[in-house]
Design a protein that fits this description.
By secondary structure, the chain is an alpha+beta fold. It has helices at residues 6-10, 13-28, 36-52, 57-69, 81-95, 100-111, 123-133, 151-158, 186-206, and strands at 159-166, 172-179, 210-215, 218-219. The protein has nine helices and four strands. A four-stranded mixed sheet has the order 1-2-3-4. The longest helix is centred in the last third of the chain and has 21 residues, at 186-206.
């Protein structure tokens, strides 16, 4: 067994290929960006959440690893990509000699990050869910023809800034969005992301937090 690190995962050529090819597959079916910008942001935000809450350095590292690997299952199919990704991650991490307990934590997080089937089963899972579902931003939109935007393009393009953080009193997880309502109404955001926000609330509660959603400074959840 070996202590597998986040930097080791980031530099692994096979993993980088899987992330690149998974994003290409999603591009082909019209999905927003799921490449290195997304997985790196998710990894770092998941780690920041746990670090702020006082989790061990190793648990924080596992959150980074899970965040970086969480979408590789899209290379197989978007449907059930969380489960496909968990199976792929198991093989990768097992071959790298990761401790079975740590491996179990990471694949549980990956396998439970999707709002259709997932649930926070451990702290790494909870942090991954929040970090993943909060990554809404204009730069994820590939399509630059506004006239042909679908609702996902429109909602992401409307988000001028997004930030997820733990409150100073460490009692709440706060997702703050600035949305250009000339591009997308706030209700459009809820139309496609309500289930994601409900899963974020469940994940925050697992960590002993309240989940708050602020849109243009107004508290909505």
């Amino acid at each position: 067994m070996s202590l597998v690190t986040y930097e080791q995962i980031k530099q692994n050529d096979a993993i980088r290929t899987y992330i690149k090819k998974a994003d290409e597959a999603l591009c082909a079916i019209g999905y927003t960006e799921h490449a290195f910008a997304h997985v790196t942001r998710v990894a770092e935000n998941a780690a920041s959440i746990l670090k702020t809450l006082g989790f061990s350095d190793r648990t924080v590292e596992l959150a980074k690893i899970a965040g970086y690997l969480h979408d590789i299952g899209n290379i197989i199919n978007r449907v059930d990509h969380a489960l496909s990704g968990a199976n792929m991650a198991f093989r990768i991490l097992d071959n790298l000699g990761m401790d079975p307990g740590e491996l179990a934590t990471v694949i549980a997080a990956i396998g439970n990050h999707d709002e259709g089937t997932g649930t926070p089963v451990n702290a790494v899972t909870a942090a991954l869910i929040i970090a993943d579902k909060s990554d809404v931003r204009r730069t994820r939109v590939r399509n630059r023809d506004v006239a042909t935007f679908d609702i996902h393009d429109r909602v992401n393009f409307a988000v001028e800034s997004s930030q997820v953080a733990i409150s100073e009193d460490k009692r709440a997880c706060v997702l703050s969005l600035t949305i250009d309502t000339e591009i997308c109404a706030v209700m459009d955001y809820f139309e496609i992301f309500l289930n994601r926000m409900l899963l974020c609330r469940k994940a925050a509660e697992f960590l002993g937090l309240h989940f708050r959603l602020l849109v243009n400074g107004t508290k909505l959840l």
